[in-house]
Amino acid sequence: MPRILIIEDEKRIARFLELELTHEGYEVETAFDGRSGLDAATEHEPDLLILDLMLPQLSGIEVCRRLRVKSDVPIIMLTAKDDVSDKVMGLDMGADDYMTKPFAIEELLARIRVALKKHRAAAQLPAEILTAGCITLDPTSWQVTVRGENVSLTRKEFDCLHYLMKNINKAVTRDQLMNEVWGYDYYGDSNTVDVYMRYLRHKIDEPYHLKTIHTIRSVGYLFSYEEE
Ligand code: CA
User: Fold this and answer.
1) Which of 24, 56, 225, 228 could form a cystine bridge with 133, CB 3.0-4.6 A?
2) Measured in angstroms, how far is the CA atom of residue 92 from the centroid of ligand 1?
3) Centroid of ligand 1 to alpha carbon of 145 (angstroms)
4) Residue 100 in contact with residue 77, Cβ under 8 Å?
């Protein structure tokens, strides 16, 4: 059975989750602060993480950021308040999904199943290295190079570029990008997509005098390789 690590400082919630998830047949481990949670995640390599954002020692955001350097374990964040900026930051740090407390346990269980399934499916696909002109994107190492130079991208920037490059010379809508990169249930502002396209232009197009991220009016975006 998949192993799930719960990092949650509210012991009442942690115990409740532990009980419910054990009942579902998962193997469960709990940690009550960010630092011991990060240690447990690193040492025991669970199959999925349930990560509270407001944690002592090390915040959930920071746990997520540090973990993502070396692991693609699915992470479902728990947020205490309906704080959009926290969610966006968490997702940007590489969390896969989030739930706002209080939540229905059935919904969390459903999301756990989806996250595990998605992760398994992704693990089975051969990670194809994509190239366009002088740009190379390697999904396994999360590396992007332009003319042989490493370009440092955040996880979400990387995912956006990955999706665009997979659909090279095809227009993709903002909704497609939102679904693909931020998740089926992310009801964020679709301006988020525009913001990320600006980041990508700033990191890929401008410094290397390329034109790759094209705006398609009233549709979305299209990736094609052009040198200026
Ligand atoms: Ca908390």
Assistant:
1) 225
2) 20
3) 38
4) no
Write down the pTM of the prediction: 0.61
CA 39 to ligand 1 centroid distance, Å = 18
pLDDT of the residue at 77: 92
In 3-state terms the chain splits into helix, strand, coil percentages (rounded to 5) of 45, 25, 30
Distance CA 35, CA 5 (A): 13
Per-residue pLDDT reduced to its tens digit, 36-95: 999 999 999 999 999 999 899 999 999 998 998 778 899 999 987 666 677 777 777 788
- Ligand 1 centroid to residue 52 C-alpha, Å: 6
β-pair type (130-132, 97-100): unpaired
- Angle between helix 191-200 and helix 155-166 axes, rounded to 10 deg: 90
